User: Which sequence fits this backbone?
């Protein structure tokens, strides 16, 4: 019954486009519409985020109460939590899968996948992606990757448990840890599918942005979101294949007896036949992707927050060009800093020195971005929408986490901080929390565009404040554990006398994490409830300049009925003096805003400047409207 | 609307099924052995789980009531013709101001309380340089951290929305941007230079032939460490992983004369103020040799040697005095995920005076025992000096010391 109803609605909407009929399956499942694919990415991403968050609560419980039994864990986990206590190898599996899901499935696919798909065509003025079919395929590869990854919870030896970086030999030898059996194979298969998905997505994003911009949308008129997605996609295209290469070699080592990563290994007294490989090779290949990956995670979040902060401060983003150049700087530099993950791995120390230099240089564009955000807020007229709250939260996390990066990027300091809780605290702030906040800012901001409904703002405030506070409560104290030399990925802190003083801190952190998790209920309820019962969104709820808000609220295939609008100006004309409203959409030509045009707007076009001068002579300014 | 029905009916059913399947399969798909596990009385457990769920639901209900009350309040204000109820911009901006104040206090509290629970000052020469640089970096970053947060939350508080005001149109200023590109770049240059020089001083040491560092070999495996001292010749001998057997767990090659006097030790004992050269390697997976009191960490990698040289400056006794903790001990442990026992892979370290060290060393046993002598076709009884040196020796001095060690 429902299919028919949808069907009718659809035909009614798009009769003039002459598209073939859509069924439930072609509209909601194998959709090739970028807006639907964006929603698919988002909802899959949210589900994966909830799962990964649940895993983190499980291991936080273990860390807080290492000697208590929680029989309900056995109900869910069976022999992995015999007697209600998580086993130490399963603890490592939890940590591994939490990391993998969060980094790849939530913050890469869930973030880039959602917002690149939604915003690229809408903000540059295209009817859809360059290749809608590839786009659909990209989602389904991602979905399969998720399914395969989760399936490893249903096998006897359990999921991969060598950490999300899966360093061999640990990940290559099932005798070293049970998770390196079938679970690791599934991890590798899942990752290959995920990379395929990312590549298809990335190629699509780049070609759409380069080829399908609407009339007037030159590169320097693109919103910063698009710049961020564009550079992120380039990063992904150039770095993800290297991971596949690494993964294939690892598959060979595991299944076909080669020795790319293995050499001179004795398990107990069993001498393995592998000779001539090097475990360090994996680390080079992994981090050649792995480091750009953290920028793949954070750059879309930075792009989103640039847009959200500018819109809600009612001010142009400060230093648009500097923002773009710093994104480009981060993109280029991120390819030559991977070695800072390997300072103490036994890599030639000479390289350590070089990587330290490049790593600390990358802090400069990051600092520029932060200062530009602050300058944008300065003398703004700030509307605290939930999206804006999350964007401000992102800036805060980006600062806090970024500054601890200066410690870790310094090879000498890294000696004592490497693989401790200091690292955990650092990256959870700068790429975990900051990127999640960017994603949430994006969801709150573009929800009206995605679902045609408004989310409840008050629940959004509640969600923000609980999450913001508890994220700091979780991660700030962890720095100090690291400074005391407590290594990460420890199943329990009970075996070391000096770690016992941190047990109370662990209990506190776990409660804060539980609070953070419960706060997400406010979001989930708001999100799913508003899809059905939310207030219907107006055309341009945030009074924003960008192109997506000129498209009708009801989704239609092709985005705009009739012609695609033409773009005349940059996207950040907020509160321009001389104009009556505090925003001027990109589609408004300068001829309609004679009273607010500035000489700079014409980019040296002598004829236009002449017209403007004539107009100003004819209409002398009577009073300042400011 | 029909979509809604579709989703509510069928999806809830599907979700319920999925959840049950998840709970069941994950519990049942595992070993039958799990079934034999002792039964726990689940009554209490379910009660406590239900209790927490009820508490949570009560909180949700409370929030929902507050939400409704707010809505009613705002609607009634609207109906009375007064301008809309609560000014949420003001609420949020004030919360940011509050967060700034409480946050700054929280940071202060963390720095003083948790900050006093950290590792004691470095007990090695290079560790002091690392500590100095850490402190410098900490000061710089703390200043930036606090200043930027005051600006961020301060601006959020001051420039909250007002319908009467318009924001200041200020798209760019190249001078300011140049300043805040160049200043961080300069500060970072200083840090990079210091870091680079310290790094070089740690990893590129010129060896003084008269003061050769004490060699200690550490081998890691799941989940323990083995320590090998070089014996009288001052050099740890060759290893070959292919020689590993139950009695020769490290795969020491005893046909190398330098190996024969190598000593095994249960703990690492090192003389104070003498350079120590750690030769690290691993039997199975990657581990990380982490000795935080000396600011030493380096991964142990199968198939290759990694080397870290450091000089301890404080004895254990001194540290016990300094930290006011009679139980204080140095230790090293694993910092790279290596398997189920990763969380408990440690060894004690004792830093002692030169004299105590010599005494301790004299008591340690060699790796070479009678069993291994047989395996390597070496005479079981202490042999006369000549017979061994005939076959393989090149350096007669080394052989002599070697034989002395064997005779012990």
Assistant:
């Amino acid at each position: 019954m429902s299919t028919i109803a949808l069907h009718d609605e659809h035909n009614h909407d798009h009769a003039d486009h002459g598209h073939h009929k859509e069924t439930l399956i072609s509209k909601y499942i194998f959709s090739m519409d970028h807006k639907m694919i964006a929603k698919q990415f988002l909802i899959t991403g949210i589900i994966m985020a909830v799962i990964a968050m649940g895993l983190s609560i499980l291991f936080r419980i273990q860390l807080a109460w290492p000697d208590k039994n929680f029989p309900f864990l056995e109900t869910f986990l069976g022999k992995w939590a015999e007697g209600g206590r998580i086993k130490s190898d399963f603890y490592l599996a939890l940590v591994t899968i939490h990391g993998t899901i969060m980094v790849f499935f939530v913050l890469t696919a869930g973030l880039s996948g959602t917002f690149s798909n939604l915003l690229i065509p809408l903000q540059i003025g295209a009817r859809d992606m360059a290749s809608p079919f590839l786009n659909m395929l990209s989602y389904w590869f991602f979905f399969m990757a998720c399914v395969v990854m989760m399936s490893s919870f249903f096998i006897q030896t359990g999921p991969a448990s060598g950490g999300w970086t899966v360093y061999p030999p640990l990940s290559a030898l099932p005798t070293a840890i049970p998770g390196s059996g079938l679970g690791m194979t599934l991890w590798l298969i899942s990752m290959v599918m995920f990379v395929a998905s990312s590549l298809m997505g990335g190629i699509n994003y780049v070609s759409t942005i380069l080829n399908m911009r609407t009339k007037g949308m030159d590169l320097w008129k693109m919103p910063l979101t698009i710049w961020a997605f564009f550079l992120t996609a380039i990063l992904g295209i150039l770095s993800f294949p290297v991971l596949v290469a690494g993964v294939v070699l690892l598959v060979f080592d595991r299944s076909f007896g080669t020795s790319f990563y293995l050499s001179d290994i004795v398990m107990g007294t069993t001498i393995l036949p592998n000779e001539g490989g090097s475990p360090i090779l994996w680390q080079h290949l992994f981090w050649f992707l792995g480091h750009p990956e953290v920028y793949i995670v954070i750059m879309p979040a930075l792009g989103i927050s640039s847009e959200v902060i500018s819109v809600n401060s009612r001010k142009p983003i400060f230093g648009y060009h500097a923002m773009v150049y710093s994104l480009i700087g981060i993109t280029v530099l991120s390819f030559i800093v991977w070695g800072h993950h390997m300072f103490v791995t036994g890599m030639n120390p000479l390289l350590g020195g070089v990587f330290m230099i490049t790593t600390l240089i990358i802090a400069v564009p990051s600092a520029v971005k932060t200062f530009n955000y602050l300058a944008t807020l300065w003398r703004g007229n700030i509307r605290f929408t939930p999206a804006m709250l999350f964007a401000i939260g992102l800036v805060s996390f980006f600062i806090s986490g970024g500054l601890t990066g200066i410690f870790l990027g310094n090879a000498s300091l890294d000696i004592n901080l490497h693989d401790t809780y200091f690292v955990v605290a650092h990256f959870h702030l700068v790429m975990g929390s900051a990127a999640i906040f960017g994603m949430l800012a994006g969801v709150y901001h573009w929800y009206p565009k995605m679902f045609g409904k408004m989310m409840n703002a008050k629940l959004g405030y509640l969600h923000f404040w609980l999450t913001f506070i508890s994220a700091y409560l979780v991660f700030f104290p962890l720095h100090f554990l690291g400074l005391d030399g407590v290594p990460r990925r420890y199943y329990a802190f009970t075996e070391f006398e000096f770690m016992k003083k941190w047990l109370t801190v662990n209990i506190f952190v776990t409660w804060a994490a539980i609070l953070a998790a419960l706060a997400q209920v406010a979001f989930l309820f708001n999100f799913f409830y508003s899809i059905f019962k939310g207030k219907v969104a107006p055309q341009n709820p945030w009074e924003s300049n960008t192109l997506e808000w000129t498209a009708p609220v009801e989704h239609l295939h092709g985005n705009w009925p009739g012609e695609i609008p033409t773009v005349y100006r940059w996207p950040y004309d907020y509160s321009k003096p001389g104009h009556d409203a505090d925003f001027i959409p990109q589609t408004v030509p300068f001829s309609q805003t004679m009273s607010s045009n500035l000489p700079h707007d014409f980019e040296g076009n002598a004829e236009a400047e002449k017209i403007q001068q004539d107009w100003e002579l004819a209409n002398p300014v009577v009073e300042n409207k400011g | 609307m029909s979509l809604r029905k579709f989703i509510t009916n069928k999806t809830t059913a599907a979700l319920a099924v999925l959840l049950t399947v998840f709970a069941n399969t994950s519990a049942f798909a595992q070993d039958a052995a799990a079934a034999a596990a002792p039964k726990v009385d689940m009554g209490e457990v379910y009660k406590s789980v239900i209790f927490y769920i009820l508490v949570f639901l009560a909180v949700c209900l409370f929030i929902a009531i507050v939400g409704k009350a707010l809505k009613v309040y705002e609607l009634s204000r609207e109906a009375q013709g007064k301008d809309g109820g609560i000014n949420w911009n003001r609420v949020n901006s004030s919360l940011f101001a509050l967060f700034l104040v409480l946050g700054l206090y929280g940071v202060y509290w963390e720095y003083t309380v948790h900050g006093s629970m950290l590792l004691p000052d470095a007990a090695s020469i290079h560790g002091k340089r690392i500590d100095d640089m850490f402190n410098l970096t900490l000061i710089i970053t703390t200043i930036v951290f606090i200043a930027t947060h005051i600006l961020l939350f301060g601006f959020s508080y001051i420039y909250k929305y007002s319908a009467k005001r318009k924001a200041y149109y200020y798209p760019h200023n190249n001078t300011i941007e140049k300043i805040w590109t160049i200043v961080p770049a300069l500060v970072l240059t200083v840090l990079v230079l210091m870091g680079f020089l310290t790094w070089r001083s740690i990893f590129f040491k010129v060896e003084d032939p008269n003061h050769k560092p004490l060699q200690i070999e550490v081998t890691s495996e799941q989940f323990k460490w083995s320590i090998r001292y070089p014996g009288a010749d001052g050099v740890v001998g060759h290893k070959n992983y292919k020689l590993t057997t139950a009695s020769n767990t490290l795969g020491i090659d005893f046909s190398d004369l330098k190996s024969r006097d190598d000593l095994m030790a249960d703990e690492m004992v090192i003389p104070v103020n003498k350079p120590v050269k750690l030769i690290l390697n691993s039997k199975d997976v990657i581990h990380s040799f982490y000795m935080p009191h000396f600011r030493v960490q380096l991964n142990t990698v199968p198939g290759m040697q990694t080397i870290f040289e450091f000089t301890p400056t404080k004895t254990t006794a001194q540290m016990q005095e300094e930290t006011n903790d009679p139980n204080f001990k140095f230790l090293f442990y694993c910092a790279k995920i290596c398997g189920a026992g990763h969380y408990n892979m440690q060894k004690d370290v004792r830093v002692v005076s030169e004299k105590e060290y010599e005494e301790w060393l004299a008591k340690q046993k060699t790796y070479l025992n009678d069993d291994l002598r047989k395996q390597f076709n070496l005479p079981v009884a202490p042999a006369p000096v000549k017979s061994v040196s005939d076959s393989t020796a090149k350096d007669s001095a080394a052989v002599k010391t070697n034989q002395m060690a064997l005779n012990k």
User: Anything to note?
Assistant: Chain A has two domains: 28-533, 552-618.
